[in-house]
Amino acid sequence: MDNQFFQQVFWGNTIRAYCMFTGIILLGLLFKRIVSRFLSQLLFKLFKKFADEVKIDTFIALLLKPFEFFITLATLYLAINQLKHPLGVEVFHYHKLVDKVKVLQVFTLGELLDKIFLFLIILSFFWIILRIIDFVAHVFMYRAIKSDNKADDQLVPFLKELFKFIIYFIGFFVLLGYVFEVNALSLITGLGIGGIAIALAAKETLENLIASFTIFIDKPFTVGDLVKVDGIEGAIEKVGFRSTVLRSTDKTTLIIPNRAMIDGVLENMTRRNFRRVKFNIGIIYETEADMIKKIITEINQFLAQNPDTTDGVATFDSFADSALNIQILYLVENPDFNTYLKIKEEVNFKIIELVHQYNSDFAYPTQRQVADKPKT
Q1: 3-class SS at 273?
Q2: Among candidates 307, 299, 215, 303, which has minimal Cα distance to 256?
């Protein structure tokens, strides 16, 4: 009697088929998180020796959603295939060329769903691979941060993007071949004029890619360096597949194509041994010559005795319209920008003190009116 109940047919399917459909869906929803964590832990064993410094929770957090998505798709596929109706309903038909003969092909709803599921399952598979690449990059980045070599901090993100691009490329052609049944080789060779147009459109991307390899080979800068390129100044945050990310002194994010980084005039301010300071001060014309000599002598002595300045020199430079100009030139050995500003500030305050000490002052633009001579 029970068997006859489950064999009853409603809307083209037996009650047994509906029960199987519902049971598989419920089991999949209930256990997808548990199964996903189990698969993540199982897969982590392959990376355990490689990633002994990183906790397993990081790996599970990266792989959990892709595995859940994969299990959800597999559950739906198994559940839907328990039903017969309406999977056999014709959706559309088309003619396919087989041995130069047109053959009528019928495409049912079931076949359409198979294609959709295959498409999504391939996507989820490559999603898992991309997350594994993220994890491997995370491990290498963790090691790079602990090392003193800044080149590692720059290389790891680049290789991560490069390998992910390769996976995207492979995934695209796998989808073409298995889902859309397109011969990828024939597609590439048959592009013709379209292929030339695509190549021209990708010209800049290819140039930036080549430029990125040039950056890694020549190493004109590394992550953390303060650089100036074509008047743009900032600290290198990341060298990517296509562009370089800089952080300016006002904390603005600047994204510059890699080609521009090597084609333009680039100044790596971090690698220079000294920072040069050169400026003029103008003192009033009322200052006596002996006082000017003493001010210059005192400035030279201060620059020579200051441990933070090198090759300091002050000289009487020129006669300006409203001031007597003294030129001051010195080098700061410390490359840190904030320290450099503090040293400049110290020197400037000392100059103010010395100028006032010798009964002089700083000039500002003024004009004197000469009285007209009385007519005789």
Answers
A1: coil
A2: 215
pLDDT for 282 equals: 94
Residue 348 to residue 352: CA distance in whole angstroms: 6
Find out whether the peptide bond into 86 is cis, omega within 30 degrees of 0: yes
Higher pLDDT, residue 344 or 180: 344
How are beta strands 226-229 and 101-108 bridged, if at all?
unpaired
User: What kind and span of H or E run contains 233?
Assistant: strand 232-239
* pTM of the entire predicted model: 0.66
Distances (CA, A) of 351 to 109, 305, 322: 87, 14, 19
How far is the C-alpha of 213 from the C-alpha of 226, rounded, in Å? 20
Q: Positive or negative, the Cα torsion across 336, 338, 344, 350?
A: negative
Residues 6 or more apart whose Cβ sits within 8 Å of residue 56: 41, 44
What is the maximal distance between C-alpha atoms in the chain? Answer: 144
List the helix and strand counts (H, then E) for the chain: 11, 12
The 10 Å Cβ neighbour count of residue 217 is 8
Name the residue among 218, 204, 208 with its Cα closest to residue 243. 208
The Cα 138–Cα 280 span in angstroms is: 51
Task: Decide: 335 and 270 in contact? Cβ < 8 Å.
Answer: yes
Q: Cβ neighbours of residue 81 under 8 Å, at least 6 residues apart? A: 87
Q: 144: pLDDT confidence band, cut at 50, 70 and 90?
A: confident
pLDDT per residue as tens digits for the range 45-95: 888 888 878 888 999 999 999 999 999 999 999 999 888 878 877 777 666
Question: What pLDDT is recorded for position 312?
Answer: 93
Distance, CA of 279 to CA of 315 (rounded, Å): 11
pLDDT in tens, 276-295: 899 999 999 999 999 999 99
| 66-72-77 Cα angle (round to 5) | 130
Give ∠ CA 196-197-200 in degrees, rounded to 5: 85
Say if CB 270 and CB 226 are below 8 A apart.
yes
Residue 374, pLDDT score = 55
Is residue 367 very low, low, confident or very high in pLDDT (cuts 50, 70, 90)?
A: low
Percent of the chain at pLDDT > 90 equals 40
